[in-house]
Amino acid sequence: MILFPEGALKLQGTGRQVLERCDGRRTFGQIVSALQEEFGTTDPEKIRSDITMFLEQLQRRRIVDY
Amino acid sequence: MISPCSWSNCSADASWITDLPSPLALIAEVTHRCPLHCVYCSNPVQLAATAAELSTQEWIGVFAQAGRLGMLHAHFTGGEPLARADLTELVAGARATGLYTNLITSGIGLNEQRLQALVDAGLDHIQVSFQDSREEAANWIAGAKAHAHKIELARAIRRHKVAFTVNLVVHRQNLDHLAEMIAFTEQLNPDRVEIAHAQYYGWALANRVALMPTREQVERAVAIVADAEKRLAGRMRIDSVVPDYYAKYPKACMGGWGRRLMLINPSGKALPCHAAEVLPGMSFENVREKPLESIWRESPSFQRFRGEEWMPEPCRTCQFRAEDFGGCRCQAFLLAGDAAVTDPACSLAPAHHAIESAVQEANSMASKAHPIAGSSFVKWQKENAEFWTYRKNPE
Questions:
Q1: Which residue of A has its CA nearest to B231?
Q2: How many angstroms separate the CA of residue B93 from the nearest CA in chain A?
Q3: What ipTM does the predicted assembly reach?
Q4: Phi-psi map region of A11: left, alpha, beta (phi>0 left; psi -120 to 50 alpha)
């Protein structure tokens, strides 16, 4: 669960896996390659663009910064 | 719905939580005392007396119950929460039960040291209101010399690890320079800005003639906000709402009566919304006498307008009834004399004429004043007595 001003997000599955890796130390590139490795059967470019889109949505809401 | 899940097998990665059987947030009006006297204050005109305020331990007990009930947020508001000397303890108490803590404040009573203590106690988010970008006007609206201190405080906040929102309350007297107010806010560098049109409850209703914008002002404001949203995307999130007097359908007040939010007033009364105490013939239970959960689930006051059973026509058969819940019960009472009718802000409401005549009045009068430079509340109060009424303090 992510709590922020005036709202809350319940996270499961891949969304949760992305955000769990957002620890202020790992870079965007590191997070992408870790997940590309984990989901080896999926097109790596697809994974990169999905993570980009996900984090951009959260950044617009000022939930993550990167 | 927001999700990156097309590359794995899940259909619901992250959903915005909308429907929980428990309330989502507790609004803790910890005191009605306030060093500001804002003319748009939505507190009840009958403020809760200082002597009747809940004690530190009583509040901490309320937060513990809220945490157990599954609530997520605690919003500390007032009055001015900082007027409570035990605020840090209260925040720590709320945080200890897992609540996300939000302090809604004027900033008066906060210095670097106290801010540090609050952040150490686990404060997650702080929201500071600004009355205007121009010092003279801001102090005139607040009836207090507060503006310069707020700017200083905003800078201090950014030196701490806490989320920061600036709240701009807009109305007839300041809407003409909204673009300047947004530019001013950018310099304060918050994560988020709320552009809130004054809502006409409590003191704001008494001052409606001086506060209500013209249609032209509202339309220009909408365009300015849309422009700023585009320009500031990813840097500063903007949340704003069209004022309901100029909307076609009413606001979903409190996300529906007894559906998401629970407000505890300074003396422990549990209310479904900020203004509910104005409703005649209703009695509200007190956390000193009943557990929070039983008030939420069983009290007659929380059940009175919950769901759709109570709805009159045209709400009862309206396609939007699950979106706006018939609007605001307090506004229905204040403008139509009956809390159980459709909110007059709705264009379909039988009592919509009450809104139409207020809109007509606001658009036919030249009710704009020049800010009066003041030095003390007494002076502001005296020199503006004909124009508006400043919020007073409880006994």
A1: A60
A2: 18
A3: 0.73
A4: beta
Residues forming a β-bridge with A8? A3
- Give per-residue pLDDT as tens, A3-53: 888 788 888 888 888 998 998 899 999 999 999 998 888 888 999 999 999
Asked if B5's CB is within 8 angstroms of A14's CB, the reply is: yes
Helix residue spans in chain A (DSSP H): 13-20, 28-38, 44-60
- From chain B, the residues in CB contact with A49 under 8 A are none
Segment B319-364, tens digit of pLDDT: 999 999 999 999 999 999 999 999 999 999 999 999 999 999 999 8
CATH domain A2-60 topology: Arc Repressor Mutant, subunit A (1.10.10)
A6 has a chain B CB within 8 A of its CB: yes
Does A30 touch chain B if contact means CB atoms closer than 8 Å? no
Q: Is the dihedral of CA B354, B225, A2, B61 positive or negative?
A: negative
Rounded to whole angstroms, the Cα distance separating B104 from B82 reads: 10
Q: What is the pLDDT of residue B12?
A: 34
Mutation to test the B interface, candidates A62, A64, A65, most B Cβ within 10 Å: A62
Amino acid at B9: N
Domain ranges of chain A: 2-60
Q: What is the pTM of this model?
A: 0.90
Tokens 């697809």 belong to residue: A46
Contacts of B13 in chain A (CB under 8 A): 11-16
User: Please, which residues have CB within 8 angstroms of residue B294's CB and are 6 or more apart in sequence?
Assistant: none
Q: What is the separation, in whole angstroms, between the first and last Cα of chain B? A: 48
Chain B partners of A7 at a C-beta cutoff of 8 Å? Answer: 16
Q: pLDDT tens digits, residue range B260-316?
A: 999 999 999 999 999 999 999 999 999 999 999 999 999 999 999 999 999 999 999
Across B258-286, b (16+ Cβ under 10 Å) vs e yields: bbbbbbbbbbbbbbbbbbbbbbeebebbe
Please tell me which of the candidates A3, A8, A11 has its beta carbon nearest to residue B13. A11
Contact at CB, B10 and A54, closer than 8 angstroms: no
* Beta-sheet pairing, A2-4 with A7-11: antiparallel
Give the single-character DSSP code of B48: P
A46 closest CB neighbour out of B7, B72, B191: B7
